[in-house]
Write a structure and sequence with these properties.
Elements: H1 2-12, H2 18-25, H3 31-38, E1 49-52, H4 62-79, E2 85-90, H5 96-109, E3 113-116, H6 123-133, E4 137-141, E5 150-156, H7 165-176, E6 194-196, H8 200-210, E7 223-227, H9 234-243, E8 248-251, H10 277-286, E9 290-294, E10 301-307, E11 312-316, H11 318-335, E12 343-348, H12 354-361, E13 365-369, H13 373-386, E14 390-396, E15 400-402, H14 412-428, H15 433-444, E16 446-455, H16 458-475, E17 479-480, E18 483-490, E19 495-498, E20 504-506, E21 515-519, E22 524-529, E23 535-544, H17 547-568
Parallel strand pairs: 2-3, 2-4, 3-6, 7-8, 7-9, 12-13, 12-14
Antiparallel strand pairs: 1-5, 4-5, 9-10, 10-11, 14-15, 16-23, 17-18, 18-19, 18-21, 19-20, 21-22, 22-23
């Protein structure tokens, strides 16, 4: 059996260090664990690597990181003749610094210039650095909001966005050729190939963030509670809020310092309201108007606001924050006479349609992409090159937002600044974010959304995910909970089915294992496997004339969809 052969090969190899060998020896009688660690290689895709830290081919460790880096180096050397440079950043997770240094070592040994940060930096600053230093690629060591036993390795292209399928496939091909015997190493960190990035980059990045401010007539005394959730956002977010003039920013001290175990939370995920428990307790003491929380690599930000009617704190969804920011930006541009007729807003097929309605009101075109900010970044680049539209704002439901042209990934630093600015702007006018959101719903109908993640780990879990998605693909339900389905987008087959006319047409998108079922009333649900975790994700978006109507429809649709899933597995 291949996994047992691999297991024994790792123990016997001269390239495996003694601590790794001992870790593997401890698993001698754990057949299921050995199989899970060695039944496949940790997959490299458009999200790079992401997995549990530990020994084995299906784990994040020094060897899988070195092998991946050698494959990336071979790819870059095949693409470019000279002047190849790569920027590297890392977050606060276990082994992040070690993986970053090993990555720098392998790249350097292959004659590739490396720019590396001396300490923790955010993912958006890595994207900025790639563009600023004109690197051919970038790498950030992070597993974003995953549990503490995970880490990851994300690869960026020369535009500062995550690589897409074509490049990922070419890199994967190079990685597949690599044996541990053929990895180049160089431990000389004083040579000309490795350069530590100066703090000038930090200053330039922060100045670019501040330049995206829209208004100065704000209530700067607004009370803000911020938590970096033990990650990289602590320094840049606090700095930009201070330099923008916000006087009352309270940081959750228990979550301020980097902590690889993320010991104060179950998950360092701003989508999880439990991650805000300490922040909410602080907010109640200081009567905060706004709570901000960024994930470990600070590319996403969660928002909690105070309901002035009952003084309770309510978490806003990514769709709600995205709609509020879009409306604020376009309203501000209109007031500042900078609202031109060629602006483009970009979001994904799993993002609520409320944003598109807002954009339409201001004469702004909306472009939909597949799930993942890499597709938004690629669309920004295409719009920029073609001159067919100027990017104004992009967002996805999973708490990622971007404006400006200096970064090509979601940016929790600029989003934190603009959310604080937006909140202070409306407070100066006697209104809250919840009040603005209500006005938007009154104007465009009530949109309610929910994302449900179903954890299905291991080999059996992957098989269940495949079985569920293939059932929906093959059977193509046309009615759910008495509601007619009008369209089915099958992004894997590249086909849009029209169940009303019986026609179908080809979709011009990269292939992705995603199904989107659209009802006749603008409501929809989407099923897809997670690209970074052993989960299946189901997205629901319901539209109604009132909150009660939308909520009732949501619960009914969820009940029927999960009833189908439970019958399958």
């Amino acid at each position: 059996m291949r996994h047992l052969e691999q297991y024994r090969a790792w123990i016997d190899s001269e390239f495996t260090d003694e601590s790794t060998k001992e870790e593997l020896r401890q698993l001698e009688h754990c057949a299921e664990e050995i199989e899970d660690r060695f039944y496949k290689d940790l997959e490299f895709g458009t999200a790079g690597l992401r997995g549990i830290i530990g020994a084995g081919t299906n784990r994040m460790n020094i060897f899988t990181v070195a092998k991946t880096t050698q494959g990336l180096a071979n790819y870059l050397l095949g693409q470019y003749e000279n002047n190849i440079s790569v920027a590297i950043a890392y977050d606060s997770r276990h082994m992040s610094k070690e993986f970053a240094l090993k990555t720098a070592e392998v790249l350097s040994a292959n004659g590739i210039k490396v720019y590396i940060f001396e300490s923790l930096r955010s993912t958006p600053e890595l994207s900025f650095t790639i563009r600023e230093l004109r690197c051919k690629a970038g790498i950030v060591i992070t597993a974003s909001h995953n549990p503490p036993q995970y880490n990851g390795y994300k690869v960026y292209n020369s535009n500062g966005g995550q690589i897409l399928e074509q490049d990922a496939d070419l890199i994967t091909e190079e990685i597949s050729k690599i044996d541990f015997n053929y990895i180049k190493y160089s431990q000389n960190f004083t040579n000309a190939h490795i350069i530590y990035i100066s703090k000038d980059i930090d200053d330039k990045y922060i100045e670019c963030v501040k330049s995206l401010s829209f208004n100065k007539d704000l209530d700067y005394k607004i009370n803000i509670v911020y938590t970096p959730l033990h990650g990289t956002g602590n320094i840049p977010v606090r700095r930009v809020l201070k330099e923008r003039g916000f006087r009352n920013v309270f940081t959750v001290s228990e979550q301020e310092a980097p902590d690889s175990n993320f010991s104060t939370v179950k998950l360092p995920n701003p989508e999880d309201i439990e991650a805000f428990n300490l922040a909410i307790n602080m907010a109640k003491k200081v009567r905060a108007d706004l709570i901000l929380g960024t994930d470990p690599d600070c590319d996403r930000v969660g928002v909690v606001v105070r309901n002035e009617e009952n003084n309770e704190y309510i978490a806003l969804t990514g769709n709600q924050v995205g709609a509020l920011l879009l409306n604020y930006i376009l309203q501000s541009k209109k007031n500042n006479n900078t609202l031109t007729d060629n602006l483009v807003m970009i979001n994904t097929f799993v993002t609520s349609d409320l944003g598109e309605k807002i954009a339409e009101r201001y004469g702004v075109k909306t472009i939909k992409t597949l799930t993942g900010f890499k597709y938004i970044a690629d669309t920004i680049n295409k719009c920029e090159k073609s001159g067919q539209g100027k990017f104004v704002f992009g967002y996805e439901e999973s708490y990622g937002y971007l404006t400006g042209d200096y970064v090509r990934d979601k940016d929790g630093v600029v989003a934190s600044m603009l959310i604080a600015e937006m909140s202070a702007f409306y407070k100066k006018k006697g209104c809250s974010l919840l009040g603005v959101l209500k006005k938007l719903h009154d104007e465009y109908n009530f949109y309610i959304d929910e994302t449900v993640s179903v954890s299905l780990e291991g080999i059996s879990g992957q098989n269940k995910i495949t079985k569920i998605i293939e059932y929906f693909r093959e059977n193509k339900p046309t009615v759910i909970c008495g509601k007619n389905i009008k369209y089915l987008y099958d992004f894997k087959l590249g086909i849009l089915y029209d169940f009303i006319t019986g026609d179908f047409e080809k979709l011009d998108y990269p292939k992705s294992n995603v199904l989107k079922f659209c009802f006749e009333d603008e409501s929809w649900f989407v099923i897809r496997p997670s690209g970074t975790e052993p989960k299946m994700k189901i997205y629901f978006s319901l539209c109604g004339s009132s909150e009660d109507e939308a909520k009732e429809q949501l619960e009914n649709i969820k009940t029927d969809v999960f009833a189908i899933m439970n019958c399958i597995i």
